[in-house]
Fold each of these.
Amino acid sequence: MANKQNKYDRQLRLWGDHGQWCLENSKICLVNVTATGTETLKNLILPGIGSFVIVDKSRVNGEDAGSNFFLDPNAIGESKAKVATNLLLELNPEVKGEYIEEDVANILETNPHFFLSFTVVIACNLYGETLQKLAALFWCNNIPFVTCKSFGFIGYLRLVIPEHCIIESHPDNSHEDLRLDCPFEELCAYADTIDLDAMDKKDHSHTPYVIILYKYLMEWKKAHSGAMPKTWKEKKEFKKLVMSGIRKNADGVPEDEENFDEAVKQVNSALVPSCVPEKVQKIFNDPKCLQLTEESTDFWMMVGGLRQFVSNSENGLLPLRGSLPDMFSDSDKYIKLQNIYQGKAKQDMEAVTGHISQVCTKSGCGNGKISEKDIKRFCRNAHFLRVVRTRSLQSEYESPSKSIMDSLTSDEISDAVWYVLLRAVERFQSTNGRLPGMNNAEWESDVNRLKNCLYDLLKSWDIPGAVEAISDDFLQEMCRCGSSEIHSVASYMGGVTSHEVVKLITAQYIPICNSYIYNGYKSTSVTIDI
Amino acid sequence: MEVDNVVSTVREPLNWSGRWNHIQKVLERSGPFAHPDFEPSPDILGFLLNNCKLLVIGAGGLGCELLKNLTLTGFRHIDVIDMDTIDLSNLNRQFLFRQNDIGKAKATVASDFINNRVKGAEVVPHFCKIQDYDASFYKQFHIVVCGLDSIVARRWINGMLISLLEYDEDGNLDQTSVIPMVDGGTEGFKGNARIILPGLSACMECTLDLYPPQVNFPMCTIAHTPRQPEHCVEYVKVFGWEKEKPFGDAPIDGDNPEHIKWICGSACERAEQFGIQGVTYRLTQGVIKRIIPAVASTNAVIAAACSTEVFKLASSCGAPMNNYMVFNDADGVYTYTFEAEKSETCVACSQKPKTIHFKPTSQLRELIEFLCQDSMLQMKSPGITTTVNGNSKTLYMKSIPSIERATRPNLSKSLADLGLSSGQELIVADVTTPNSLIFILKLSDQRSAET
């Protein structure tokens, strides 16, 4: 039996065992077998989702088999869903999969409940009423819905998420939580016992920069009525002050003290005022936090407790993160300092736990006790909490998006224009019962038909004049591609889409909000909040 | 299988009706975003299927995806090189491999799978290193696509393709000798894809500072002042293993769980001494093997971007990317495409020997350190020869033990003492390039610097 820890090692280093657990307990539904869809599923099966179901009524034809790795030409005429399921299952014996040879519109009519057991649903090449109905079903049930497609050299992805709460957003760059602007009691107690001047050469040059900056900030504050260095000029002066602390040898030449060099480099960062980040503040003011009920999720319960912790604290700050970056120092001093930060973080975490309990009891939502592990993880990531809510698909189609309107009226045409063209294509589909450019005979004359659809679309958005801003070149290319699925483009979208789905399943890293366009002509892309 | 009469120029039973419908649309219809030279025609598909020869380097995370994408967009004649065998930890993304393939050659298993799944594909495997082949092998290809996990290997193939360039007497490049190189790389949720047109656009060496060397832990931290669990593991790797010889004379084998277990235990002991927490098996293995996290999705994206470029380059149905894309989908999805610029002083592709400046009193070892540490040179273990008084002389060569021993004393000699004069040509060989590079040595008493 495959050792899962070994097999999944390379990805466990990205989302941990708990993230993997979420994946292995997820159920994914793919509606419509297209290359984009099967490539997306491939990238979900390989990392080990629990199970999947493919819904598609149609049969394999020649062109499907020609551009899809999971459709066998020997199976032309058979059920697409069946063939794809069997070939996909070969990728990972741990994953279960089934197929349903049915039209999604039919299932929506007769048994919509079927869809409600899925963690995420992915739909490809759905248009018009069926698309809207399906999206609306998931919107009401707080199930993330993903729609994606490839159209020639263009890829499109839309996430429809009523609410997605993230604790582990894994920010790429973040300031350390050192609290040098408002040092806590335990840090002061320790740092105050240190006398830099009395140290021997070795100790002096192996003292961590946190202590050095603490000391010199104290000196600065004394000389500046308790104020921290703020202006660029003041920070420059402060850096000089820190540099002046470097020991000099008998000839007056400054010694090589790497810890002091590091301290100077870290000044700007260390002087960033500690605060509750704006995004977190917003989460505190969210109605879901202010009105906790028995139905509140663990996330909101913890947010409620966190909010109370902050308002009760003297400094109005989040619990101390507790992590200390590596820095030049001897082992002893570094570990001592690290223990102080970790100790304080633990203390704060315990206080937060108390507040969570209180807040739960008060709002009657205290059935499931939240584990210490979860609260610890929550506190460590308190500065990076995120809540993602996208517009519903219904709203997108009812009222045109400001960002799209802006993109059409700006000087430079961005890749957002492809979204408008895809909407025009959808209109073409409902008007003509087919997609533009599908037939060799008519593809060039489709350009004008597509242009009329574009005009109608823009008219419905009250910007009929914008049709002039969109060069005929784009219309020409849309018809030229004739909704073909070039496998490499489908595979690109399969990669992007699958990772967004992984983010939704694991609740780690930050998903797009809410649409993504890939331009394979220029190898560029854009994310738009439509 | 039926014969297809839509694809008129290809009379094969393998092209069932409609097989190539999707790509034929862009190959047989004109469009404003096609390459300016593009002439739509059924002959183009014929070229892809029958004549175009591709080389895929690497049959791992990127390679598997590349082989799938290329064969599904009309390419049949593909050679694939990979020197590795299949490991369990590959299976989370290298989807052409299964549990019972573990231990087999990646190139062979990958090509068998593709040839079986994509009818008509003729992928030829090469279970060897890229350095095992010479110019006569590489010049047969129209396009080279790289899915490598090593900068050194990328630089080598970059150098190889540059060596195939032909110039006429006036110094003009014969464009038919240009073999485009499409290169992809991934790391966790980050990746990049680029197109190199040797002799025409920025090559690997032109932009070497985009690939800074790996940072190692400082030795004094490892030996005396460890602070992190990684420092403890590194200590055992560098000192502990040699000292205790837990498995006799066997060197550390990162793939041997017994070795990792021993190192982990020993690292834990050291960590305990210093009050450091966090040494785990997974962490230990990560440090010893320098593991880079990897997932299917990033490999899919980057390989796809590369494949699309190959498709456009071979068919002209679209203009190629210009010329370097970076990708990151940790926070949202971010891409940025820019034009990397060809350097007029590039050691590899500018055809001009690079000039380096030193004092006559500088020691040879300083020159060698410079070749290794300069961000635009980053050589690994350069071997230097030159001509002194009409005779060929090896100044230093690390790669051959007997010559290393013989030339080691030269390291502490000054350049003047070695008989070198200003304007001297130095011939430098290194693993990062298939052919030696020429440097012009300028000696002067001004502060040493290079232009």
Note: Chain B touches chain A through 79 residues (CB under 8 Å).
Amino acid sequence: MGRASSKEDVGALFRSLRSAYAATTLNLKIIDLYVGFAIFTALIQVVYMVMVGSFPFNSFLSGVLSCVGTAVLAVCLRIQVNKENKEFKDLPPERAFADFVLCNLVLHLVMINFLG
Amino acid sequence: MATMPILPNMPALDLIKSFKLKTKQQELLIRVSILCLVYILAFITRLFSVLRYESMIHEFDPYFNYRTTLYLTQNGFYDFWNWFDYESWYPLGRIVGGTLYPGLMVTAALIYRILHFLRFAVHIREVCVLTAPFFASNTTLVAYFFGKEIWDTGAGLVAAILIAICPGYISRSVAGSYDNEGVAIFALLFTFYLFVKAVNTGSLAWSLASAFGYFYMVSAWGGYVFIINLIPLYVLVLLITGRYSMRLYVAYNCMYVLGMLLAMQIRFVGFQHVQSGEHMAAMGVFFLLQVFYFLDWVKHMLSDTKLFQAFLRITVTCAVAVGAIALGLGMLSGYISPWTGRFYSLLDPTYAKDHIPIIASVSEHQPTAWSSFMFDFHILLFLFPAGLYFCFKRLSDATIFIVMYGLTSMYFAGVMVRLILVATPAVCLVSAIAVSATVKNLTVLLRSKNKGVQTGSTKGSSSSKASSKALLDQSQPFQKNGAIALLFGAFYLLSKYATHCTWVTSEAYSSPSIVLAARGAHGSRVIFDDYREAYFWLRQNTPPDAKVMSWWDYGYQITAMGNRTVIVDNNTWNNTHIATVGRAMSSYEDEAIEIMRSLDVDYVLVVFGGVTGYSSDDINKFLWMVRIGGGVFPVIKEPDYLVNGEYRVDKGAAPKMLNCLMYKLCYYRFGEMLTEYGKPPGYDRARGVEIGNKDIKLEHLEEAFTTSNWIVRIYKVKPPNNRW
């Protein structure tokens, strides 16, 4: 009884999630795609590290942190650009994007220095 | 109204009329002038020792910082970053570039370069001496902006004033105290201000700024661990109290990732942010935040709560399981190192005494007495709870932060005297809120007329308006008189605070420690400059590759001023090496000479206070040498040096004590010395007894130099006898 209901629960969950997500605007979906790509790249690097070993550690860290960092910054951009967020109502999206670009610039400069 | 009389000097009156400013401009003028005065005050109150003695570096640790800054300005950044110092910790050497926090040196070198660019040809020592007061002035500005962020401009101004003269901060930032804390407290407050600003505005730019502030703090001081644990704790508290918002997510994530990446550029910190137990709280909160906001987003998307509950259950169990497994694996396999001794002794104060005698021996690491709190904080000690009350009345993200900062830093200040410094900005800010809110309420009472609340001050907070409304129903004159009396009381207290702070700065915190002063017989000032005399003698009369053995307290000063190689110094990174020196000092001369020959020692330096009554000399530190030496070499046993558990140097002292190397070197030829009128020769003024062994003969060492007041004594190790 519990198994069957949980299975159809899961199915209903996925369906409602998919329908709700389809309603989001296009620019937000692009940002989500970028976040997914960054996380995927990070996962590939972690798998590679598991196979090959973690020397030199600073290169591994800089690679993974750059992916995680840019994913996190993209999520912050998404939050600031999303029209549904009341807190960022009077933040112009150009300003949000400029902040995003600046933070990414700093992130990648430091990452290049750390790459070794 | 009568007609205006025609005045003779019309142009002057027009000029005066044109200066009449609007209220807002007047307020701005008052604020800016107060801040300028506070800036100057913070700088000049720290200059006592420069005026009394001369512009020199104080104490022990600043000499190492000075030496490295000198190296940096002479050789450039790359040589500094990759410097291997072979002049300390002979024969091991020290990797300086990888074992120091470069923020202070780079800051001073930068100021030096800027001044030279502007054609002010100052010596680097002057820049080093005045760096700490300069940054103390900057801290007052940051305190103003922080107070403005938390409460309002009034609280900001009071905070700036309080922190400008607070003794807890002055103690480590006088002119000449060229130490990491002088710059680090500025970086700490600046980082906290930027982070609170980021949480309040939710802007990525402010978070980036706070990441840079954190980077500066990491480069400046090891106490950055406080920031990287307080901020996650604050985020956790906000999550638990339900004050989470999108701004918090943006602020913390940007600051954590960028801050961590920037912090790992400092070689001394290295990979600790992902490997050390002290930094795991930040990472844990980072992942928790991702899970939290992911769940919040899903909840927002799903309209059906039942489905969401199911989803919630699955996700939370998965996340908790994964997190627990990862943490467990990390700690068990030793990949995540446990808390280091230095920080663990903060959580468990009894740990250091049992396990790590070097940490326990430092006087700054002892628990704080109430007198120290009163001495360093004065009225702020009872204004702090009052400020906490006001913060709780008007809770916001910013006030929650300052409450947490205050409470955690006060706990740590209670554990270790040195950490009063970290608590000082929090105490000043919270007390400023109390002072500002109280004065505001009282002046609202004063300024309210019979007409009621309409004429109440527009600057009053809502609570004060309510209170004034209630109080106005009662008899007016008593309220006004009471308010005036209370205001006078408040100003009296603040003036006493200012007097106390100036007195404390002048008497207690402005001594250079390397130059001693005393009152002579006729009240005239007597200066003992023995330390520098001895180091300069070393510099000029010994071969350049001579090696000097002394207790680790003096290592930095010997390398910086004497320019000679030392065996151990204040860095204390190698306990066995220090224990070897301790063993040599506490053995008989024959055993000690073997140890000294094995270390290639040419000169031995001891500090002796028997002639002047100077109590921080090596005989008083001797028991620590025995303990540390005995901790590594069981041949040194502490009970051998004590008589009935008592530490004595007179006739009744233990025979091992009377014949050990340290005793012989300190009291050589002291038996003939008349130190005080009416006392026998060989009377030790620091211990207050006549020494036991007056007829000391040295076999393997000979006296090389004794300073004019016998404070520093240098002995030369004789080469082995010829074998005919």
Note: The two ends of chain B are 118 Å apart (CA to CA).
